[in-house]
From TrEMBL:
InterPro entries: ADF-H/Gelsolin-like_dom_sf, Beta-sandwich_Sec23_24, Gelsolin-like_dom, Gelsolin-like_dom_sf, Rossmann-like_a/b/a_fold, Sec23, Sec23/24_helical_dom, Sec23/24_helical_dom_sf. The keyword 4Fe-4S does not apply. Residues 41-180 form the UspA domain. Residues 326-593 form the Sec23/Sec24 trunk domain. The keyword Metal-binding applies. This is Protein transport protein SEC23. CDD domains: USP_At3g01520-like (cd23659). Residues 257-295 form the Zinc finger Sec23/Sec24-type domain. Residues 938-969 have a biased composition (Basic and acidic residues). Residues 938-971 are annotated as: Disordered.
Length: 1037
């Protein structure tokens, strides 16, 4: 390298670090002054490599002090410039480079504050790394410059140059500390032992951090490899991954990805790059691929963004994407078989939704009761609609003929009619699906005129509702006008379908709606036909690329169990509420069209593909997608969910859409104990195409780790899938068997000593998750309708691990005067009178006030200025719950209750009843649970033995009494009554009462029995006399 020139200018850009890092105050150090009191400036050179991170960690532990300020300097070379994206792709002015560097700096700054309590300043400078570092050292005059090495050999350092060597010889303003890499420091010799025995497992917080970064979590971070003779470790909890395609926020690379010529995988940080030969090796098929000419300047110091070590998730701009994409389409399908109040609530929410729709969007409206009405919103003069019979299915050709699409233009004689390009005119399409800006007034007028069904049902009949026909007509209309575009059918349903295809029950009220028992016994007459109808509808919508959303609000079932296949395969939303006026429905519908920080990030027309290493096969996906039936060597013979394919279609997806991929690890003839070979590294690459292609590559090495939360979520999805597809499946027995097998493999136990059982820290919480899973609504269908069970499982199958684990095991947070909000055990012992609890069960949020807090609130203490602490305590759980509500979809139900109140059951139903029911948590009521069966049986047997003992004592006493009755009369006459005293007429009433009281206390047991017997005889004797007199006084018939 050339020596540093004094007058050389560098382009630089300051990095704005997150505001979450508080400013570290200058410490008050007694008897210290000068440099130690003021703190020092320390420069740390960072990049995206592991050796740089090792030097950063060394500096925090061994060099930095509390008052220091570290300056993070990242040098960016500007020589790499692909010809198709311009000459400044690696310039500091490029947003892609800056965002990647900013993410790196933010992570390091947070770690510096957490570990060493030091503040950080970050800067990205364009230029040669050695010159940049020396220039920054001259500017800051730091106490030291700390940097790592790239681990090059002596020959490569001489030929290519070394940044550390350059700084060592040319930095005159500060001492240079060069931290050797891990391999140079001697860690390589113990890497094998650490992997096998003492390698520390990531905590659940670190797993959650990885999920936030890359959107993927896997139960097994050790890939279990079994031989053909042994039972595989993953027989109960398979090797799987829960992946959220749109979760990580990544910078957009403005060029197309570089693909392998053989397997079509994308260039990634785990590719083996040969800079001298300008080739890269694919980690999946091991094929060598040449770099194109625009990558000619690539080197180990000049890498493209997709080869940065932390670029495990990158996003590319598709070269085939057009500048004018079709607008989003919203087709509302409204049920009018509602009460007037419910229809008013629905109309009000639709007005709000229409106002939130972007003006460029396309809108349509269909209403139905026993007939289907398709409104022509492009006709502004009056309300115009076309009627269809609710008992008959309708094809696309019949629909187009009925709607007069070919009056002005002739109908094509052959081919598929699909959109403007294939047979339809834009003018005809705009009649029924116009832009929202053109039909605002017409749509509002139609909604105002929308009334309840004009065909009232008979007293012993249900309303005629043709839900299936209405959805079929909506699908055919979108398929003919906007095929392959971002279109959503939003159905608002208020009751069960009773007419036409897709009906779930007959109109007669004498026939009940199917239950879980009816479905299990195959005694639901309409269930199978309705499921088949919605399976065909799902195939049609998937082929067209459209989404079906269902918003159901009714106290009765509406058919969610039958519509589940159509909603799930198209990636649609489902919201289930009690009324259209409930906040769950109202706020959830508003959230769909909301834009800003908490928007859902709606995307459409997605295709999901996967590439795996050799020895790994894909069994299938459980989640919101549909199979594209792409066969290949990656497909396993055993299918789970949407299986036997390596590509899936995701018609609708958002930031929270997650899929569960299940893999199969090929068995080997001999077990591999040595894990240092390249064979034991498995690679997974997930490719998601929607409007531009997204590629993610994840390396899962054989490190010692087990993600308990991900394992519990995978188990819940598998149980839900098996319960729906296998009628004889026993979920409790399967979960218990999986837990027992897992504990027997990894637990430690001394025979004969039950207290010696111990699980590793990686598995310590997994039995607790299984305990709550067995009690959850996904396994226990009792007291839930088929619609509710289908609703719960659909939400489970589309949410990520963090949200799904809350559904399985709710979280409980305590709010008190003396401490910050903290999580507490999910147990009744956590309830206290002076405590507020917040239960998050995902579908329900419960704010529970203790008895003392409730009394203070009812007394109005929080309105008095001297009780601001109580005001803050009452407001804290509300703010906490508002944060959860703003981030969640569907919107959860909020319940605010008091201890001993009726709605406290929402909390008590989720708590572990460790008390006997007589404590303060229940107000004296009994708590029943289905757990601890053995202890309950033992208690029941003990109570039965006590009852038999009391009965035996009673029989003995009866025998003794009967013997006394058989004694001679003289003996009997000796026992007199307990009442011997005769009232004195001259004494007062209180004196006579006192004498009788003393007489009663001093009487013997035999005298009391005699008195009681005489009293009973008198009572029944008088009753007989009265009855005899009444019979004698009756007149003859």
């Amino acid at each position: 390298m050339e020596p540093l020139m004094e007058d050389e200018e560098f382009s630089l850009r300051e990095v704005v670090l997150p505001s979450l890092i508080p400013v570290v105050p200058e410490p008050e150090l007694e008897r210290e002054d000068g440099e130690r009191r003021r703190g020092r400036d320390v420069i740390i050179a960072v990049d995206h490599g592991p050796n740089s991170k090792h030097a950063f960690d060394w500096a925090l532990v061994h060099f930095c002090r509390l008052a220091d300020t570290i300056h993070l300097v990242h040098a960016v070379s500007s020589s790499f410039s692909p010809s198709f994206v311009g000459s400044n792709v690696n310039s500091v002015k490029n947003d892609v480079v800056y965002e990647m560097s900013q993410a790196l700096m933010e992570k390091l700054a947070v770690e510096a504050f957490q570990v060493a309590m030091v503040k950080s300043v970050a800067r990205v400078v364009e230029g040669e790394a050695g010159k940049v570092i020396c220039k920054e050292a001259e500017r800051l005059k730091p106490a030291a410059v700390i940097m790592g090495t790239r681990g090059r050999s002596l020959v490569r350092s001489v030929l290519q140059g070394s940044v550390s060597e350059y700084c060592f010889h040319n930095c005159k303003s500060a001492p240079v500390i060069i931290v050797p890499g891990k391999a140079e420091a001697g860690d390589e010799s113990i890497a094998f032992d650490r992997t096998l025995s003492v390698c520390k497992s990531p905590s659940m917080a670190e797993f959650a951090e990885l999920e936030a970064q890359d959107g993927v979590r896997m139960p097994w971070n050790i890939i279990p490899v079994a031989t053909t003779k042994d039972q595989p470790i993953d027989s109960e909890i398979p090797v799987s991954a829960i992946y959220t395609p749109l979760a990580p926020s990544t910078p957009l690379l403005p060029y197309a990805p570089l693909r392998c010529r053989t397997c079509r995988s994308v260039l990634n940080p785990y590719s083996v790059v040969d800079f001298s030969a300008s080739t890269w090796g694919c980690p999946f098929c091991f094929n060598r691929n040449p770099f194109p000419s625009n990558y000619s300047s690539i080197s180990d110091t000049n890498l493209p963004p997709e080869l940065f070590p932390n670029s495990t998730t990158v996003e590319y701009l598709s070269s085939s994407s057009s500048s004018s994409s079709p607008p989003p389409v919203f087709l509302f399908v409204v049920d009018t078989c509602l009460f007037s109040d419910e229809l008013d609530f629905l109309r009000s929410s639709l007005f709000q939704a229409v106002d939130l729709i972007p003006d460029a969007s396309v809108v349509g409206l269909i209403a139905f009761d026993s007939l289907v009405r398709v409104y022509e919103l492009g006709f502004p003069h009056c309300t115009k609609s076309y009627f269809f019979h609710g008992n008959k299915d309708c094809s696309k050709d019949q629909l187009l003929d009925q709607l007069s699409f070919f009056v002005k233009s002739p109908k094509p004689s052959s081919g598929v009619i699909a959109g403007v390009r294939d047979g339809l005119s834009a003018e005809d399409i705009a009649r029924f699906l116009p832009p929202a800006s053109d039909c605002q007034f017409t749509l509002h007028s139609v909604l105002e005129e929308l009334g309840s069904s004009q065909w009232p049902a008979a007293p012993d009949h249900r309303p005629g509702r043709c839900t299936g026909v209405a959805l079929r007509i909506a699908a055919c209309l979108l398929g003919a006008c906007f095929p392959g575009s971002a279109a959503r059918i939003m159905a608002f349903i208020g009751g069960p379908s009773t007419l036409g295809p897709g009906a779930i029950v007959s109109p007669e009220l004498s026939e009940p709606i199917r239950s879980h028992k009816d479905i299990g016994k195959d005694s639901a007459p309409c269930y199978q036909e309705a499921v088949e109808f919605y399976e065909k509808l799902a195939k049609q919508l998937v082929h067209q690329g459209h989404v079906l959303d269902v918003f159901a609000s009714s106290v009765d079932q509406v058919g969610i169990a039958e519509m589940k296949v159509a909603v799930e395969q198209t990636g649609g939303f489902v919201v289930l509420a009690e009324s259209f006026g409930h906040s769950v429905f109202r706020d959830s519908l508003k959230r769909v069209f909301q834009s800003g920080e908490n928007d859902l990030g709606l995307s459409s027309c997605g295709i999901f593909e996967i590439n795996c290493s050799k020895g790994v096969k894909v069994q299938g996906i459980i989640g919101s997608c549909a199979s594209l039936e792409k066969k290949g060597p990656l497909c396993s013979d055993t299918g789970i969910g949407q299986g036997h394919t390596s590509a899936w279609k995701m018609c609708g997806l958002d930031k929270s859409t997650s899929v569960c991929l299940v893999f199969e690890i090929a068995k080997r003839e001999t077990a591999d104990v040595v894990l240092q070979s390249q064979i034991n590294q498995f690679y997974f690459q997930f490719l998601t195409y929607y409007q531009h292609s997204n590629g993610q590559t994840r390396l899962r090495e054989l490190t010692n780790g087990f993600d308990q939360e991900a394992a519990a979520v995978v188990m819940a999805r598998l149980i839900s899938f098996k319960m729906e597809t296998q009628p004889e499946f026993n979920p409790q027995r399967w979960a218990d068997k999986a837990l027992v097998n897992l504990c027997s493999r990894f637990g430690e136990y001394q025979k004969g000593n039950a207290s010696s059982f111990n699980l590793p820290s990686q598995l310590s919480n997994f039995p607790q998750f299984v305990f709550h899973l067995r009690r959850s609504q996904f396994v226990q269908v009792f007291n839930n309708s088929p619609d509710e069970t289908a609703y719960f499982r659909m939400i489970l199958n589309r949410e990520n691990v963090s949200n799904s684990i809350v559904m399985i095991q709710p979280s409980l947070v305590s709010f008190t005067f003396n401490s910050q909000p903290e999580p507490i055990p999910l147990d009744v012992a956590s309830i206290a009178a002076d405590r507020i609890l917040l239960l998050d069960a995902y579908f329900t949020l419960v704010i529970f006030h203790g008895a003392t807090i409730a009394q203070w609130r009812k007394a109005g203490y929080h309105h008095q200025p001297e009780h601001q602490a109580l005001v803050h305590l009452l407001q804290s759980p509300r703010d906490y719950s508002d944060t959860i509500i703003n981030e969640r979809f569907p919107i959860p139900r909020l319940v605010i209750c008091d201890q001993y109140g009726s709605q406290a059951r929402f909390l008590l139903a989720k708590l572990n009843p460790s008390s006997d029911g007589n404590g303060p948590f229940s107000g004296g009521s009994n708590v029943f649970t289905d757990d601890d069966i053995d202890s309950q049986l033992a208690e029941r047997k003990e109570r039965e033995a006590e009852r038999k003992e009391r009965e035996a004592d009673f029989r003995i006493q009866e025998e003794m009494d009967s013997q006394k009755e058989k004694e001679p009369k003289a003996a009997v006459s000796t026992t007199s009554s307990c009442r011997k005293y005769v009232n004195d007429d001259n004494a007062t009433f209180l004196a006579n009462l006192k004498d009788h009281f003393n007489e009663f206390l001093n009487a013997s047991m035999d005298e009391h029995k005699t008195c009681f017997k005489n009293t009973i005889d008198k009572i029944f004797g008088r009753t007989k006399e009265v009855e005899t007199k009444e019979v004698e006084s009756r007149p003859p018939l």
